[in-house]
Amino acid sequence: MSSFSFAVEIAGIPIAFEAPRPMAIPPELQPFLTDCASAQEVYEIRLLHEPMVFHSAPVYKATGLAVYACGGTSYREFLHLRARDGSTALCCLGSSGRHTLYIPEADWARYERNCSLSALLAPEALFLRHDGFLLHSSVIRAKGRGILFSGPSGVGKSTQAELWQLHQGAEILNGDRCVIRKLGDRFYGYGSPYCGSSGIYRREQVPICAIVLPLHAPENRLERLKPDAALRRLYRECLVNLWDPAFMSKLLDLLQELVLRVPVYALSCRPDARATELLEQEIFGGK
Amino acid sequence: MRLVEGLMLRQMLNEWIAVPCGESALRMSGLISMNETGAFLFSALKEEHTEASLKNLLLETYDTTEEIAARDVQLFVERMRRANLLVEEGS
Question: In chain B, N or C terminus with fewer CB closer than 10 Å?
């Protein structure tokens, strides 16, 4: 029985949390608070009094994460969130919309005060249940439409987003990981709690009109990518569940549709206003 | 030799794409695109083969020459080897 609950809406998906004790709502979730009544996804937070023991080897193990399959249910163990008694935080996603977060009791004080709860939600799997996924990108709104700047760290995503804010009157909705969702036959970009160091958490959505892959270069040049090249480039920037073929299949279906519907550009660019003008001319025709 | 476990093969946007999942994803990330001959060899290498047996499979299935089949197999095997996706005796 929960004694404390709250709900957030991320990418248009109402998500409730039920905790056994009162806890501080993490700052990155606060802009997304909503009422609990309409929740489509519920995370029950349970306290772990001792380490959870698995009787089989993980199906996947990478830095900071081990995934176990137990009778059709998978458990994600967050290896870097280990309490003094050896127990670790875990997330178990259910298929019916009810999920469980296991938090080490020995670490509860940390969660009570402040914790990055959003990191424990297995968000990529959650969003995929709603035809959505996380793309490493900054998303801006310009003239009512969304432009995503995507690519690995250091290529100039934030710089281009800020240049658009400065020179083209755009607003930045998210600085690091944008949620992309397909609604009907259109794709939308959403602000999310996953914003890296940008500190920009906005509960807003925008129809995506272009995805841009910036790259530092001595001159500004824009090239529209063919769908197959675009798909390969965007795939690298998606948060994926490599151990789950069904996840990978659905994600690739969405990516395929995205690159057929939304133009993807490679932008070799300098950090100057001219780079924004070049892209603005291509997308909006200078209007 | 054979391919490591966990590779998915899908036809997308008029090409064949191999997607590393599970164990294979620990060996390499990203997608591998290939043509129809590559997809054929990829499917065959789910089971144990040698370069010679792959070449014979190509000759049995496609209207091609021994020289072209041998070159196609060599290029494909090299590519899979570079991607660290082959399990080979002694490796």
Answer: C
